[in-house]
Amino acid sequence: MKVTFSIITSFFLFFLSLTIRADNIRELVILNWADYMPVEIITEFEQRHQVKIREVYYESDEDRTQVLVNSNGRGYDLIMVSGGDLLSYSQFGFLAPIQYQKLENYKHLEPRWLSAHEGAAEYALPFFWGTLGIAYRKDLLDTAPNSWLDIFKPDKALQGRIAMMADGGEILRIALKALGYSVNSETPKELKEAQQLALAQKAYVKAYQYIQIDASSELVSGEIWASMAYNGDAIAVQEYSDNIAFVVPEEGTYLWVDYWTLAAKAKEPELAYQFLDFISRPDIAVRLAQAFYFASPNRSAAQLLPADFLSDPAIYPPQEIIEKSELYQQLSPKAVRRRNIISRSILQ
Question: Where are the domains of the chain?
Answer without folding.
Answer: 2-129+256-315, 132-252+324-347
